[in-house]
Design a protein that fits this description.
mainly alpha, two-stranded antiparallel ribbon, two-stranded antiparallel sheet, 323 residues, 11 helices
Length: 323
C-alpha cells in the first residue's frame, strides 16, 4: 500500500501548495540543460547524423545520472516504508502539475467570461506556444481548452503511470525526459536534429499513458462522441500522442477544437478535433476540460487503490495466511 500512500501524499501536497514557486528542482535542471545544449549543439552545422548523436549524448548525460541515482536511493530505502512514503510522495509531487494546470485554465476562463480580452490573452500566452496577440475569444478558449486536455496527460497522468510502473526512478525518468522535449523538441533549424532524440524518447514514454488518458477521457465524458473522434481524428494529428488525447478529450466534453493557428509567425492548418457540429470553444469549455481532468484523476486513484488492494489480498491468500 506504499504506492497508494505516496500517490495520496503527492496529490495532497499539490492541492495544498501547488508547484513550488521558488527552488523547484526542474528550474535547476532546465538551467543545466540549457548550458549543456549550448556546449553540444551547433545547429545546422552539425548535420543530420552528428546532430542527432549529439542530442542523444546530451540526453543521456543529463537524464542518466539522476535516474540511476534514484534507482540506487530506492533500493537503499527499500526496508523503510516511512522513507519510501516520504521520498516517493515528494518526488511524485514535484513531477505532477495538477493544481497548477487547473489554476492556469481558470486564470484564462475568468477574464474571458468577463470580456477582459487583454487579460485572457496574457494568461493563455503563459501556457501555449502559439502567437496570442491577435487571438479572438474563440481562439483563446480553443487554445486553453486544448492545453488543458493535452497537459492533463503530460503533467498528471503520464507521471502517475511511470510512478506506478517503475517507482521513483520511473517518474524521475519521465519528468526529466518530458522537460527536455519541451526545451529541445522544436522543429526549427537549431533543434531539428539535436532535439530529435529528446522528442522521440518523450513520444515513446508517453505512448501508453497517452492512450490510457484518452480512454479515461472517453469513459468519464460523452463516451460515444469521444471514441468516434479518437478513431477518426487522432491519426491526422502531427503528434502521435497529443492526437488521441485531444481528439478524445474534445469529444468527451463535446466541443469543436483544432483548426488554423499561428506559430512563430507562420500560419499552420491543423486538423479538426472533436465533433465538428458541436459547440465552439468558450470559457465554459475550459472549465469543462478542467472538470474532466479532475474526474479522470479520481478514476485513476480509484483504479490504483482497487488494483493494489486486490494484489495485496491475492498475495496474502497465496501464502495461506488468514486475515
Amino acid at each position: 500500500m506504499v504506492l497508494v500512500s505516496c500517490l495520496l501524499l503527492a496529490l495532497l501536497l499539490d492541492l495544498l501548495f501547488q508547484e513550488p514557486a521558488r527552488y523547484h528542482p526542474l528550474v535547476g535542471f532546465g538551467n543545466l540543460a540549457s548550458w549543456l545544449e549550448k556546449q553540444l549543439n551547433t545547429g545546422a552545422a552539425n548535420g543530420r547524423i552528428k546532430g542527432r548523436i549529439s542530442g542523444l549524448v546530451a540526453w543521456g548525460l543529463i537524464v542518466g545520472p539522476p535516474t540511476l541515482f534514484f534507482f540506487w536511493l530506492e533500493a537503499l530505502i527499500a526496508e523503510s516504508e516511512a522513507l519510501q512514503l516520504l521520498v516517493g510522495g515528494l518526488m511524485l509531487y514535484l513531477a505532477i502539475g495538477w493544481q497548477s494546470l487547473l489554476s492556469h485554465g481558470l486564470a484564462i476562463a475568468k477574464p474571458l467570461a468577463a470580456g477582459r480580452m487583454v487579460d485572457a490573452r496574457q494568461a493563455v500566452s503563459m501556457i501555449v506556444s502559439r502567437d496570442t496577440r491577435e487571438l479572438d475569444e474563440q481562439a483563446i478558449a480553443g487554445a486553453a481548452t486544448e492545453s488543458m486536455l493535452e497537459n492533463g496527460s503530460d503533467a498528471i497522468f503520464s507521471a502517475i503511470f511511470w510512478f506506478c510502473l517503475l517507482g521513483i526512478p520511473g517518474v524521475v525518468l519521465y519528468r526529466l525526459s518530458n522537460t527536455l522535449d519541451a526545451m529541445w523538441g522544436y522543429k526549427n533549424e537549431r533543434f531539428l536534429q539535436f532535439g530529435w532524440a529528446a522528442a522521440r524518447i518523450d513520444d515513446l514514454l508517453n505512448f501508453i499513458p497517452a492512450r490510457l488518458t484518452a480512454l479515461s477521457y472517453a469513459l468519464m465524458g460523452q463516451t460515444r462522441i469521444s471514441l468516434a473522434a479518437w478513431r477518426q481524428q487522432a491519426g491526422n494529428w502531427k503528434s502521435p500522442n497529443a492526437g488521441p488525447v485531444m481528439a478524445a478529450g474534445a469529444g468527451a466534453i463535446n466541443v469543436s477544437l483544432g483548426g488554423a493557428a499561428i506559430y512563430h509567425g507562420q500560419l499552420q492548418e491543423r486538423p479538426p478535433l472533436g465533433p465538428q457540429d458541436g459547440p465552439t470553444a468558450s470559457a465554459k469549455s475550459i472549465r469543462e476540460a478542467c472538470a474532466l481532468v479532475n474526474r479522470v484523476l479520481l478514476l485513476w486513484v480509484g483504479v490504483i487503490i482497487v488494483g493494489v488492494s486486490v494484489t495485496a489480498l491475492t498475495a496474502v491468500s497465496a501464502t495461506g495466511v488468514s486475515l
